[in-house]
Amino acid sequence: MKQNKIIQNQNRFFIELDFTDIEQIEFPNNIVHQINNVLKKRPGDHVFLFNGNKKEYKVILSEVTKTRVTGYVKDVIDFDGELDINIHLYQSLVEFGRMELVIQKSTELGVKNIFPVLSEKCKIKTFSENKKNRWQNIITESSEQSFRSEIMKLESIIDFPSACKLSKGLTLFCNEYETDFHINKINHSYLIENNIKDISIFIGPVSGYSDFEIQLANKFRLLSVSLGQRVLRTETAAIVAVSGIMSQLE
């Protein structure tokens, strides 16, 4: 991950467009509201746009009204706001308020994609399309705010056995019963020496993993790790685990 001082503290928005051959950019309604009513921008002001290709587009605003905002690309800046290692988070489904916190903070911390996992002790078994859209909006807004170059991908619901099969790279099974191997042993040297490019992190539901799931994780050779002596809430565990790995990548 590389920083770029040119775009620091700038207003930026994600638009899924190829800006290469577009002479005039027509902003979508949700961004029109932000630019006109919240930021109070005027013609001649600028914002930055990104579309996931690790470039920032400085856009000069041509027209700003209550219903329409247009602009044109003045400068293109190379910018990579992603981590050097792909982190895949397998988060057991939890109450929606907690899930939203996990999604928001995972996005800010640089997680590549998040899998809502259906574990045996999950009280939440599914979520609506409206909820999925809300989570997607949280991801987009958090990506804009945290200066990411890409949008974290929200995957479809997956059951625990399938998650074990799908996980790749160094797979960390956050286990409250683990006493020997602390996650802080996954340090920078460990990652370099083992040429780690992908890390999958498993976080259990509120009531923890079942005995069967713990046995299954062991069968698939998921690395059981401790997050410390305290019993953490599931949303806290996700943040601690991801930030612990992220701190070794700086």
General description of the model:
- The protein has helices at residues 29-38, 96-109, 129-145, 160-166, 188-193, 211-219, 234-246, and strands at 12-14, 25-26, 46-50, 55-64, 69-78, 86-92, 113-118, 153-154, 158-159, 170-174, 198-203, 223-225.
- By secondary structure, it is an alpha/beta fold.
- It folds into 2 domains: 5-78, Beta Barrel (Ribosomal Protein L25, Chain P), CATH 2.40.240; 86-246, Alpha/beta knot (3-Layer(aba) Sandwich).
- Strands 6, 7, 8, 9, 10, 11 and 12 form a 7-stranded parallel beta sheet that branches. The chain has a 5-stranded mixed beta sheet with strand order 1-3-4-5-2.
- It is elongated, with a radius of gyration of 20 Å.
- The model has no long low-confidence stretch (mean pLDDT 93).
CATH C-level class of the largest domain: Alpha Beta
Order of helices and strands: EEHEEEEHEHEEHEHEHEH
**Number of DSSP strand runs:** 12
Helix amount: 25-40%
Q: Note the beta-strand portion.
A: 15-25%
- Biggest sheet features: 7 strands, parallel
- N-to-C terminal Cα separation, in Å? 8 Å
Average pLDDT, all residues: 93
Radius of gyration: 20 Å
| Total of helices | 7
Quick one: overall form? Answer: elongated
Low-confidence stretches: none
Number of domains: 2
According to CATH, the homologous superfamily of the largest domain is SPOUT methyltransferase, trefoil knot domain
CATH topology of the largest domain: the name is: Alpha/beta knot
Structural class: alpha/beta
CATH architecture of the largest domain: 3-Layer(aba) Sandwich
